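Holo prediction — adenosine-5'-diphosphate.
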Amino acid sequence: MARIFSEFDLIRKIKKYHNTSNPAVLCSIGDDAAVFTIPQNEKIVITTDLFVEESHFRKDFSSFYDIGYKVMAANLSDIAAMGATPHYAFISIAIPKEYTEESILELYQGISDIGKQFNTTLLGGDTTLAPSQMALNVALVGSALEEELLYRSGAHPEDLICTTKSLGDSYAGLQLLLHPPESITEPFAKLITKHLRPTPHVHEGRFLAKSNFVTACIDISDGLSGDIGHLAIASNVGVHLFENQLPISEELKFFTHTQHASSTQFSLTGGEEYGLLFTISPNKLEELQKKYLETFGTSFWVIGKITPIPSDRLFTKIDGSVCSFENTGWDHFSDKNK
Ligand code: ADP
Ligand code: MG
């Protein structure tokens, strides 16, 4: 089928998703490159992510709006994990011939709606033809003061490991989309929304960055057991997690109960949460908890602590026994340290 819209027309329509009122933007969509300034004295923070149909998203259960929303959420989450403020997005897209212009604009609506929530404007991109499946690249520019930036390295032995989101909901939502039950009750609908339209913790990231208390930070995209491993390797430390401290939502409890599944497994290995995982010194906990509660009206969770032995991947179960976990997840649990 021949394409029924032109690249030129599409870019003209995409342009409306750029917020032109920002004085920091000197030139955006329509020239050969974009020109902008970032706040004085701040360092530029850039992240980019490539999403490919079937590997990263599926059109059978995600709308184009959902796809746009989620790819931006994933990038915003990376900026959040650095403690930075997001500013500008660049979207490059390879579109198969048979896709309609309407569906691409719906995708941009999703990108634009979540972008606006976090003051992030589309500034450009590239458009090309794909042989069969869609591919989408998002590049996001943010900034932060050098002393506020958060890195994966920097965690010390005895630091507490904390998370800003309950864990495992997104993965439960995916299971519900893959194996739809006869009826979607309210808790199930909430889990599905968490999978399709995750909220990146941009404000939480800025709060943590400004607190000056955080020693290391990463966002949860691959799942707790994998991502805490990345942080541990970057910081050259080990990890000890506690099952009785894992934050599990009422919705996830309900879901795993109906499925006779383990909520612990979901919370340890479920990806695409886009909450933040961070470490702090134990003597800063009380002050940070208090300020966090005042700012967000909710608390973060302490789920473990950092150990001095880099190979440690310890997990204390509810019954008090200790086992080790692999960075890849719960399925590889062994009882060798029991
Ligand atoms: P060039 O041929 O020089 O790459 P393009 O025609 O691709 O120029 O792009 C023209 C303008 O449209 C540029 O400002 C570019 O950033 C913008 N643009 C192109 N494709 C997209 C897209 N998919 N999303 C946002 N902006 C785009
Ligand atoms: Mg181009």
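READOUT: The pocket of adenosine-5'-diphosphate (ligand 1) is lined by residues 11, 14, 29-32, 91, 93, 122, 124-127 (CB under 6 Å).
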